[in-house]
Design a protein that fits this description.
The complex is a heterodimer of chains A (352) and B (153). Chain A has 352 residues and is an all-beta fold. Helices cover 2% and strands 48% of the residues of chain A. The longest helix of chain A is centred in the first third of the chain and has 8 residues, at 10-17. Chain B has helices spanning 2-11, 13-19; strands spanning 22-35, 41-46, 56-65, 72-79, 84-89, 94-97, 111-113, 119-121, 129-133, 143-152. The chains are: A mainly beta (352), B mainly beta (153).
Chain lengths: 352, 153
């Protein structure tokens, strides 16, 4: 604090004060700003106006380091087992009254209740962070650049960080993996490089700009440590497929289609059904292959009917001829089986 | 301007100081609320050491008539510093300006024009200047204190 006594006209003091206004902002007055209070006395002695007397006092606004890391949106991200590059996004907002860099780290949650209520029961792989380089709010592979820190975030400014992970294979529907993005306040010393981690000014106030941590306990954070994190999670939606093979005798050479028997020359129809359990994800490109019994011969005039339906336990012959037969193996690919649905591959053989 | 005024003070010592029969000091304190071990909160005024946005300030103006004659038509004018939002005064008799010192009045009598031609009642946060004008002359040897509050933007 300094006290300056000065002598001058009150009119000039007013001119200085008029027309100066700092725009209101969440971050507040920039660190290092000097706040000067000027006061003026006017008076008369013996009916004569005396020279105005002015005095002022000034102090420096210190640096309040505060920022938030917040998940963007408020819902889990649905993923498939084995999915590569599953994306969640976070917003880092600098509410300090000075520009800062932020060191970033992304980690797996270790058990417990994840951000959106499920129980964390597996870990993600290949955790990476990307900037929203083109600023469109969507992760664009090859365009958005991988980062480990945020550079030069101005007071009141924010930046989006994409967390991109891979989902392991073999996870079941409603498996949950939590992920945490942690930001650490760092000095915005130079453009293009991460500055030193910010430390609070220890001990007594200094004449220069002191640093005070002001980050809060929101989302389970520790208050006033210059570190803030938030969590999001991924929930698996898997397809649970069950394959079933059934057969029926269509005809035999003696009885025809009337009560046919399993004798040489009889025609047998095989139905392989792929059922997808309710509540899961749609399974696509479901490949079916079946090796024929040695004592049978593939019936080429019937073909392989793919993507047929079932009525109860009966396979309908309503698939399209899309499968193949080669070297005693029948194969077909069902384009998609939605949750709760069943689709079939149907073909016929003759008993040798 | 500051340098010029200081130089003027050097070059006109006899004339200026002869008239300087009034003493005036301005101080600023930061109001801190601390909670003690028993959970009771305690408010203290501290020198403006570590000051960050949102801190509450108390400005204390001390005046005294050191001369031999009464100081009449005594007025203390304090523009609210940039980066400070005015938060009221406990010292009676204040008048306010919300337009940079052009017009003055009780806060309830002041309005802020809006862009669409209408106006609204002024609030504490609109105050640009505060002034105390004393009806009575300050007798020799007498003085007092004025206080007002503000918040760091």
């Amino acid at each position: 604090m300094k006290n300056i006594k000065r002598y001058g006209a009150a009119a000039s003091m007013l001119a200085v004060a008029a027309g100066t206004a700092t725009p209101a902002s969440a971050a507040g007055t920039t660190a290092g700003t000097t706040i000067t209070n000027n006061v003026t006395v006017s008076y008369q002695v013996g009916g004569v106006s005396q020279t105005n007397l002015s005095t002022s006092t000034a102090f420096t606004v210190d640096r309040r380091v505060n920022f938030t890391v917040a998940e963007e949106g408020n819902a889990t991200t649905q993923v498939s087992p084995g999915q590569a590059a599953a994306v969640t996004s976070f917003i880092v907002t600098n509410t300090s009254n000075a520009p800062l860099d932020f060191a970033l780290a992304v980690t797996n949650r270790s058990g417990g209740t994840a951000a959106h209520g499920g129980t964390d029961n597996f870990d993600l792989t290949n955790l990476r962070m990307f900037a929203d380089t083109n600023g469109n709010g969507i992760y664009n592979p090859g365009v958005d650049l991988q980062i480990t820190y945020l550079d030069q975030i101005a007071a009141d400014a924010s930046a989006r960080v994409f967390v991109v992970v891979d989902i392991p294979l073999g996870r079941a529907t409603n498996d949950v993996a939590g992920v945490r993005l942690t930001g650490t306040a760092a000095e915005a010393t130079a453009v293009g490089s991460l500055g030193a981690v910010v430390t609070q000014t220890a001990g007594a106030n200094t004449a220069g700009i002191d640093t005070v941590f002001a980050d809060t306990t929101a989302d389970g954070n520790t208050a006033r440590d210059g570190i803030h994190f938030d969590e999001d999670d991924y929930t698996v939606l898997a397809a649970a497929l069950t394959a079933t093979k059934t057969s029926r005798i269509v005809s035999d050479p003696l009885n025809g289609t009337s009560n046919p028997k399993m004798i040489p020359g009889a025609v047998v129809e095989y139905c392989i059904s792929a059922a997808n359990a309710a509540g899961g994800a749609t399974a696509t490109n479901v490949g079916i292959s079946d090796t024929l019994p040695a004592t049978t011969t593939y019936e080429p005039t019937f073909g392989v009917l793919v993507n047929g339906t079932m009525t109860g336990s009966t396979c309908n012959a309503d698939g399209a001829i899309a499968g193949a037969h080669a070297s005693g193996v029948v194969s077909g690919t069902i384009p998609s089986v939605t949750a709760g649905d069943v689709r079939t591959v149907l073909f016929r053989v003759t008993i040798n | 301007m500051k340098l010029l005024l200081i130089l003027l003070a050097f070059f006109l010592p006899s004339a200026a100081l002869a008239q300087d029969q009034v003493a005036l000091t301005s101080e600023v304190f930061v109001e801190r609320t601390t909670t003690d071990a028993n959970g009771a909160s305690r408010v203290s005024l501290e020198p403006p050491g570590v000051v960050t946005p949102g801190d509450r300030l108390v400005f204390v103006l001390t005046y005294r008539n050191n001369g031999a004659s009464p100081a009449a038509d005594f007025a203390v004018t304090n523009p609210i510093p940039e980066s400070v939002v005015f938060a009221g005064t406990e010292s009676a008799g204040a008048v306010y300006s919300v337009d940079g010192g052009r017009t003055w009045g009780a806060l309830a009598a002041l309005t802020i024009p809006a862009a669409d031609g209408t106006s609204r009642a002024a609030t504490l946060a609109d105050v640009t200047h505060v002034r105390w004008r004393f009806a009575q002359a300050i007798p020799p040897g007498n003085g007092g204190q004025l206080r007002f509050r503000g918040t760091v933007k």
